[in-house]
Amino acid sequence: HGAVETGHRRPLATIFGTVDVERLAYRHRGHPNLHPADALLNLPEERHSHGLRRFAAVEASRGSFEEAAAALERATGQHVGKRQVENLTARGASDVEDFYEARSHTPVDESDALVISADGKGIVMRPDSLREQTAKAAAAAANKLTTRLSKGEKRNRKRMAEVGAVYD
Q1: Which residues contact 24 (CB under 8 A, 6 or more apart)?
Q2: Please, which pLDDT band fits residue 81 given cuts at 50, 70 and 90?
Q3: Domain housing 156
Q4: Cβ(38)–Cβ(64) below 8 Å
């Protein structure tokens, strides 16, 4: 017979520290416990979170596993041993070939269009968010009206926000 139990906990080491994840366990005699929340939350099977695994892999790619462990501890406060960093990096790399295989390119028909779109908008910034030179120029400018800026008076007060998209 099956049962649902509350209060099943597991530690999860994250870049923010270790947290206890509490979830329901579905039990059946002779079978391992099922924790559907683990899949729903995309929790890894091991103790270390995906973010910690990614951090370890990035740092390991820059140097040695020992340096990666030191960088991880410096940045997150989590002590992860050299061998654990090595294992985390290997687990992260195990999906690389499958990822690229799933993204195989299909032949392109010459009638297909590749669309590239870009847009930008000048956003008026708070004076303390402007670059030093721009802030000086904005402070030196005199306003014609007291309640709002006239046309052309927004110069030296904006920064450009840009977005781009490519699709076929």
Answers
A1: 4, 5, 6, 8, 35, 36, 37
A2: very high
A3: 115-167
A4: no
Report the pLDDT value the prediction gives residue 143, as an integer from 0 to 100: 66
Angle CA 68–78–94, to nearest 5: 50
What DSSP string runs through 6-66? EEEEEEEEETTEEEEEEEEEEEETTS--B-HHHHHTT--SSSB-HHHHHHHHHHHHHS-HH
Q: Is there a single domain that holds both residue 85 and residue 150?
A: no
Residue 43 has which token pair?
A: 């929790």
What is the pTM assigned to this prediction?
Answer: 0.54
Q: Are residues 14 and 86 in the same domain?
A: yes
**Residue count of the chain:** 168
The whole-angstrom separation of Cα 115 and Cα 164 is: 11
Q: Number of structural domains, the chain? A: 2
Do 91 and 123 lie in one domain? The reply is: no
Instruction: Classify each residue of 15-45 as buried b or exposed e, where b means 16 or more C-beta atoms within 10 Å of its C-beta.
Output: beeeeebebebeeeeeeeeebeeeeeeebee
